[in-house]
């Protein structure tokens, strides 16, 4: 039976919805991306979909379920649609390692990189101690990944293949270069060779490439005032 | 089979993230050993601990896996998922995988781990620990924490439910409790959120929460928050080791 398209809600910028899009592209699941402006995200009818008023959220007509929070959405998609185990392992130990890295991404990488972006790019005045705090945290988070990847024989976080636990990091990895641009002394990817190889390798995957191009297009449209 | 029995060691400190795990274990009635990690002495950055959790944060657990080998688990959210998936066969504090309720529980679990925890943590930092007073930082994170509390409060009140996913207390509730109980520490007045406050009290009345919150040390934040002088003293002590730890982290970004 053919799958019906899953509706994915996105903001006009920002990496989190594209974590979800990468998984949909990798699994070849049909979807319909709906980009909402920030005002629309904070009011009905969207807040009936996600009471938090943030993106992403999905509505899946195949199961009748609505899911929000990018980490919960990705776990849902893997559970429901990765029956061939293209992007995951279902052995018990690997399963928990995957969950662990998902939580590390959503609670460690995402929120802190996001704050670095705010203080380095958007805030109206320079607050050096706040910039330092979050640029240091980017380095710490990447350092942890680099240390683990350097020890991994396969170069992946879990097992011998690229899983959703790796892919979930891609959109925020991509943010480091633009976020650190105002403080180049605070970021040098060459300090983290295992991380660099891993992060750059994932960008070669067709699904990742396609998603990042789509994200770039949406952000360009947003700057042109489309949303 | 003996390897099916839990043989859990919990590595923890008296913090909102640490007590998520002890409360979960108490609610499930699982025996466990506790090893206290002294954050003020940077124990969490020692090599033996990094081999359990490369991130150098609490909580973490070790358990004997179904194959008889030890498994290391870190990230509070994934530890909670692990514990209920493996040991909550009667679904006392979770729902069967694949059900609608299961995914709804997961929404709120991630909401805590990716939203309330990090943002309230930043509010703590700028309100209590920062080396300089940055008014903007304080406001930014207190406002975001308040926004998130507002979502929880409204969700509970409009749906008229005692717990976040309905009639049953789940790991999604447990994940939030320690943070909501220390709202005042981040400068948030819980009285602004009456339904959430009632939920906090409802949770506290549960024997598992009462027992689990005092691990590895007594849970004192509520008393501290009632006493302004105590609060200042506690803040000053914590500020010192938080700043020391930050300096050490900044010096060695990689942890190879």
Automatic annotation (TrEMBL), chain A:
Q: Which residues form the GST C-terminal domain?
A: 91-222
Extract the GO molecular function terms from the UniProt entry: transferase activity
Per UniProt, residues of the GST N-terminal domain are 4-85
Cited Pfam families:
GST_C, GST_N
UniProt xrefs under Gene3D superfamilies: 1.20.1050.10, Glutaredoxin
Q: Which InterPro entries match?
A: Glutathione-S-Trfase_C-like, Glutathione-S-Trfase_C_sf, Glutathione_S-Trfase, Glutathione_S-Trfase_N, GST_C, Thioredoxin-like_sf
Record key words, sorted: Transferase
Q: Can you tell me which family this protein belongs to?
A: Belongs to the GST superfamily.
Q: Which PANTHER family match?
A: GLUTATHIONE S-TRANSFERASE-RELATED, TRANSCRIPTIONAL REGULATOR URE2
Name this polypeptide is given: Glutathione S-transferase
Species for this entry:
Zopfia rhizophila CBS 207.26
TrEMBL record, chain B:
Signal peptide positions are none
Pfam families annotated for this entry? GST_C, GST_N_2
Q: Which GO molecular function entries does the Swiss-Prot or TrEMBL record give?
A: transferase activity
The GST N-terminal domain sits at 5-91
Q: Where is this region: Disordered?
A: 237-256
Compositionally biased spans, kind Basic and acidic residues: 245-256
Matches recorded under InterPro entries? Glutathione-S-Trfase_C-like, Glutathione-S-Trfase_C_sf, Glutathione_S-Trfase, Glutathione_S-Trfase_N, GST_C, Thioredoxin-like_sf
Transferase in keyword set: yes
Keywords, sorted A to Z: Transferase
Question: Residue limits of the GST C-terminal domain?
Answer: 98-224
On the tree of life, the source organism's domain of life is: Eukaryota
Q: Does the UniProt entry include the keyword Transferase?
A: yes
Which family does the record claim for this protein? Belongs to the GST superfamily.
Q: What is this protein called?
A: Glutathione S-transferase
What is the protein's species of origin?
Answer: Zopfia rhizophila CBS 207.26
């Amino acid at each position: 039976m053919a799958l019906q398209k899953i509706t994915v809600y996105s903001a006009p910028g920002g990496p989190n919805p594209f974590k979800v899009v990468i998984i949909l592209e990798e699994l070849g699941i049909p979807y319909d991306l709906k980009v909402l402006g920030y005002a629309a995200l904070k009011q009905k009818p969207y807040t009936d979909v996600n009471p938090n008023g943030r993106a992403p959220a999905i509505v899946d007509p195949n199961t009748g379920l609505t899911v929000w929070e990018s980490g919960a959405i990705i776990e849902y998609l893997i559970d429901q649609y990765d029956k061939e185990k293209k992007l995951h392992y279902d052995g018990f130990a690997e399963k928990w390692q995957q969950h662990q890295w998902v939580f590390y991404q959503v609670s460690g990488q995402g929120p802190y990189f996001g704050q670095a972006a705010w203080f380095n790019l958007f805030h109206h005045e320079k607050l050096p101690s706040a910039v330092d705090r979050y640029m240091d945290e980017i380095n710490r988070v990447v350092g942890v990944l680099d240390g683990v990847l350097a020890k991994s024989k396969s170069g992946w976080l879990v097992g011998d293949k690229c899983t959703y636990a790796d892919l979930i990091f891609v959109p925020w990895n991509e943010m480091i270069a633009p976020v650190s641009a105002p403080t180049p002394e605070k970021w040098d990817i060459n300090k983290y060779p295992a991380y660099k190889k891993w992060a750059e390798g994932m960008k070669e995957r067709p699904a990742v490439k396609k998603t990042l191009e789509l994200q770039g297009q949406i952000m360009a449209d947003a700057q042109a005032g489309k949303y | 089979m003996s390897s099916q029995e839990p043989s859990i060691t919990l590595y923890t400190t008296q913090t909102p993230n640490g007590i998520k795990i002890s409360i979960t274990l108490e609610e499930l009635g699982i025996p466990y050993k506790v090893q206290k990690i002294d954050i003020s002495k940077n124990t969490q950055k020692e090599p033996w601990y990094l081999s359990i959790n490369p991130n150098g944060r609490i909580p973490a657990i070790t358990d004997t896996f179904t194959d008889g080998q030890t498994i290391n688990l870190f990230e509070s959210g994934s530890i909670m998922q692990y514990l209920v998936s493996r040991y909550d066969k009667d679904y006392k504090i979770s729902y069967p995988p694949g059900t609608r309720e299961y995914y709804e529980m997961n929404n709120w679990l991630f909401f805590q781990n990716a939203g309330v925890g990090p943002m309230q943590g930043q509010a703590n930092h700028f309100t209590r620990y920062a080396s300089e007073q940055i008014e903007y930082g304080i406001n930014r994170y207190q406002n975001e924490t308040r926004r998130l509390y507002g979502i929880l409060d409204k969700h509970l009140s409009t749906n008229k439910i005692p717990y976040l996913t309905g009639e049953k207390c789940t790991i999604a509730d447990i994940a939030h409790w320690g943070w909501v109980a220390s709202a005042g520490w981040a400068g948030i007045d819980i009285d602004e959120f009456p339904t959430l406050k009632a939920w906090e009290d409802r949770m506290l009345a549960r024997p598992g929460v009462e027992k689990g919150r005092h691990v590895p040390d007594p849970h004192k934040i509520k008393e501290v928050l009632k006493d302004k002088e105590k609060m200042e003293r506690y803040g000053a002590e914590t500020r010192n080791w938080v700043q020391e730890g930050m300096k050490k982290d900044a010096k060695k970004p990689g942890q190879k």
